[in-house]
Amino acid sequence: MIERAASGDRKALARVMTEIELGNDRISESLLDKLHGSFVVGITGFPGSGKSTIISGLAMELIKMGQKVGVLCVDPTSPLSGGSILGDRIRMQELSRQTGAFIRSVPTGGKKGGLGYFTVDLINALDAAGYEKIFIETVGAGQDETDIHNIADAVVMVTVPNLGDEVQAIKAGIMEIADIFVVNKADTGPADEKVKELLALGTAGRMPEVIKVVATRGEGIAGLASAIERRLQQSSMSRQERIKSRLKQLVRYHVEYRLDRYLASRDFDSMANELMSGGGIAQIISRAAGELAK
Amino acid sequence: MSGKRRIRVIIAKPGLDGHDRGAKVLARSLMERGFDVVYTGIRQTPDDIVRAAIEEDADVIGLSVLSGAHMYQFRRVARLMKQNKIEDVLLIGGGIIPESDRPKLARIGVSAVFGPGSSIDEISSFITSRCRRLK
After folding, report:
1. What is the pLDDT of residues A246-288, one digit of tens each?
2. How many Å apart are CA A54 and CA A119, to the nearest integer?
3. Is A239 helix (H, G, I), strand (E, B) or coil?
């Protein structure tokens, strides 16, 4: 199945992803020696700030240059029903028709942090299938959804004019992890003030770029695409290092998945009993420690 | 709630009809019943819909048509599903579809048509009972 996915079979790639989502660890594992080390670009920002539209524009730029682009769009899973509404494809109509594009919607499955439990495996699937650039659209993020920082080679944070004062901008959390800020919908409010506010966040060690964009009209997208490309090229990590750091996250996510499932499936008393007898969660933790030590 | 994959349903509106209130109500209601619903929006071509179903590895395609073009749209989608060998995906429809067209739709592979007045529970239990993969 993985071989067929790598040879460009769209349906095979989709099935590989489903197997991953069904918790098929063997599939996840067999991807590991087929990675090319594709670049991962994270797009995060407030709900409705324009992340999907921006990804669509950016990906179209790359496709025009002959690249293959994968997109993972993460949307929240209902804490009540476990279902989800995955609505990011709506803004990617033109992109979704391109031969060089592959778009997959990803529910978080209840994971906190802005991504889904299997996001790293899904990145690996796209990577192994030859997608050179992979965009991750996080859930609509507020202040604390910073997981993308550890997974993406460049993080773009999308904001809009007229939202919050400078104190919101200097808070810890998501505002710290951006390599590039986008002020989208720049035609709807005091965009220049927002730009100034964001530029002031730069420190000697970390100087984010700030770019004004009107995504629905494509304004600023080419500039954003080259800013991202510059960031990726500046990165000091080699291909192998990129893969390795991604795999560290993969182990973490798998451990977290098992822990969360365990916590969701036990009541307090049975958990306490298992812990006392060294089973259950204790076993999971020791197994995880073993995996991490490898 | 850290769950494995759920039954994945594509809800799409083919053609030029922009009346998507029903599609949105259904998307929301199915989400509330534990399905993963990919809503692709209005003005989709049959090719768009089938490609989305392939990439999302959908279990169900639900088409909403209120324009009267249902015979054409369903036929195109069903044909593309066959071409792409995904005819095991459950194809269902909703909208304004005359009773007299329903046998014809059934013959081309539309498993059920849910017109005005259909209850969400009826739709959701139909999907659960007929879906090729259960969660």
Report:
1. 888 998 898 888 888 888 877 778 777 777 777 666 666 666 5
2. 20
3. helix
Chain A residue with the nearest C-alpha to that of B23: A85
Tokens representing residue A207 in the block: 């100087």
Look at chain A and count its residues. 294
**Diameter of chain B measured on Cα atoms:** 45
Residue A68, both tokens: 């293959």
Domain boundaries B8-130, corresponding CATH code: 3.40.50.280
Q: Which spans in chain A are helix H?
A: 2-6, 10-21, 25-30, 51-64, 93-96, 119-128, 166-170, 191-199, 221-234, 239-265, 268-276, 280-293
Q: Which ipTM was obtained for this model?
A: 0.92
CB A20 within 8 A of CB A121: yes
Interface contact A8, partner B, CB < 8 A = no
Residue A81 to residue A117: CA distance in whole angstroms? 17
- Please give the distance of CA A252 from its chain centroid, rounded to a whole number: 15
Q: Does A89 touch chain B (CB under 8 A)?
A: yes
B chain contacts of residue A21, beta-carbon cutoff 8 Å: 4-5
Neighbours of A276 (CB within 10 A): 10
Residues of B in contact with A80 (CB under 8 A): 32
Residue with tokens 């509404």: A85
- What residue segments make up the domains of chain B, in order of their start? 8-130
Best B38, B59, B60, B83 residue to mutate vs chain A (most A CBs within 10 Å) = B38
> What's the CA dihedral at B117, B120, B123, B125 to 10 degrees?
-140
C-beta atoms of A81 and B33 within 8 A: yes
Contact at CB, A110 and B2, closer than 8 angstroms = yes
What is the per-residue pLDDT across A148-204, written as a single tens digit (0 to 9) for each?
A: 999 999 999 999 998 877 777 777 778 888 999 999 999 998 999 989 888 888 766
Chain B: nearest CA to A216, how far in angstroms? 17
Interface test mutation site (partner B, options A80, A86, A122, max chain B beta carbons within 10 A)? A86
Residue with tokens 């007929």: B130
Nearest beta carbon to residue A110 from set B1, B30, B43? B1
